[in-house]
Amino acid sequence: MPPIPPQPVRRRVLGLDLGKSVDYTALTLLEWTDRSGVNKQTYDVPLLKRWQIGTKYLDIAAEMVKFLQSPEVVNFQGPPPVLVVDETGVGAPIYET
Q1: Residue 52 CB contacts under 8 Å (≥ 6 apart), including other chains
Q2: Are 16 and 27 in contact (CB under 8 A)?
Q3: What is the pTM (predicted TM-score) of this model?
Q4: What is d(CA 12, CA 30) in angstroms, rounded to the nearest whole number?
Q5: For the segment 40-92, what is each residue's pLDDT rounded down to a tens digit?
Q6: What is the DSSP letter of 70?
Q7: For the residues of 3-35, what is the DSSP string, one character each?
Q8: C-alpha angle 39/40/44, rounded to 5°?
């Protein structure tokens, strides 16, 4: 009987780049699947979002909370996504550890 291959491991990373008066704020969702034993990884970008220039940070935060509580995220077969915030430029005073 041939060995049963391991189940694929899926991971997600959210990248948030904050803009304000000159740049857009953008959100990217990267999803990758590792099929160990098959030596193949696939990468997908199922979400790209851009807010209008000048959108208030509180509005962006509210939309992020709504997205993170959505069925698309909650029902994902894998660990919750990691959020990576660009802390250069505008992001520096916004991001706190």
Answers
A1: 24
A2: yes
A3: 0.78
A4: 6
A5: 888 999 999 999 998 988 899 999 999 999 998 888 888 888 999 887 766 55
A6: S
A7: PPPPPPEEEEEEEEE---SSS-EEEEEEEEEEE
A8: 155
CB 29 within 8 A of CB 96: no
Q: Of 78, 73, 15, give the one whose Cα is nearest residue 49.
A: 15
What is the rounded distance in angstroms from the CA atom of residue 51 to the CA atom of residue 67? 14
- Cβ contacts of 23 within 8 Å, gap of 6 or more: 17, 53, 89, 90
Q: Is 57 left (phi over 0), alpha (psi -120 to 50) or beta?
A: alpha
Q: Determine the 3-state secondary structure of 45 from DSSP.
A: strand
Cα 30 from chain centroid (whole Å): 6
Nearest to 16 by CA among 72, 81, 86: 86
11: which strand partners?
Answer: 32
